[in-house]
Structure formats: C-alpha cells, structure tokens
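Record filed below.
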Amino acid sequence: MRRALALMALLSAPAASAQEAGVFDYWVLSLSWSPSWCAVEGDSRGAEQCERDLGWSLHGLWPQYEQGYPEYCETSRPDPSRAETAAMADIMGSGGLAWHEWKKHGRCSGLSSQDYFEVSRRAYEAVARPEVLRAVDAPVHLPARVVEEAFLEADDGLFADAITITCGQGRIREARICLTRDDLAPRRCGADVVRDCTLDDALLAPRR
C-alpha cells in the first residue's frame, strides 16, 4: 500500500516545462488489435507477437500534453534490464516492444522503468476489453464506431470522449483510452487524440 501511495504521488507531481521527464498532463493507453498489426507489419518480419494468441495487446502507455506529447526525453533513470522488458511480453507481445516504448515514452514519465511498467500493466488490466470482439472467429467488416460502442458497453467507467478507435489500411488498428495521470481514471482526450476512425466497413480480423 505504501508503495502504491508513493507511486501515485510521483504521478501527480505538477508539470514544469515541455519535453522534461515527468512533465505531462495525462496518459494515453494504446491497445493494439494484434491480428491487424500482424497482417500489415508483423507477419512479414516474423514478429514474436504474431506467434501468440493475442487480441487487444498493450502497445504502450504514453505521457500526453493537452496538445501533443513528449518523446525520447532525457532522464537520469537507468534503462530496464532485458529480463524486465521480457516480463512485459505477456501483454505486449515481445520484450522488444517494451524496450521501444520505454525509450520513446517511458523515459518521459519521470518514473523508474520498474514503476513505468507497473503503471502500464495496471492501466492495461483496469480496462475491460470486450469479449464480443475477442470471440470473433472469422474476418468481419463493420463500422469503427461499433468497436467503440463495444468498449463502452464493457466498461461502465468509459465514455465516448475518453476513447478513440484508429484504423489503418482499412483495418481496425487501435483503441486509445485517455486516463488521468494520478489515478488512471478515464478522462476526456485532447483535441488531437479524440478524433475517431470514420470507416463504415473496417476489417476486424479474428485472433490467431
């Protein structure tokens, strides 16, 4: 309990200046529909993630400004060990992705790598991922808003402006959920994040 309280105190520390580690307004939890990523990119590179039976995997937890976001911040915090990044593979697909996310986003959180991955896992586990989508057993074309509605129905704490569905190459790609930096509660996304995919026939491929 003391560790959790100390971690929340770090997360709620006031912002100071742009691109400085620990300076951000809220989190974006990015969930990737793994079958889409594998079909477009992962299969061709023999990605470890595509050998797993994943649905909504954790792409990352991103510090966000009200407009824009920091990336590749300088930090005095040491980088994670290979064992530490490998331990995230169960929800991220690979230790390589965990390492990339730490370099680009985690260093900007102001947290240690241990705390950053701990918060990332808690954020991932706190969001209800719709079973109706995980149960899809054949390719289906559907409006992207149906995916958002499934998330809203599965999680009473979510609301429309706190979640964004993205598409790419005609496929459902990600669900991005905006969370407060102190207690990981859903909050309204900034104007640059809140825009949804508008496709009426986006492809949702089944899990592997």
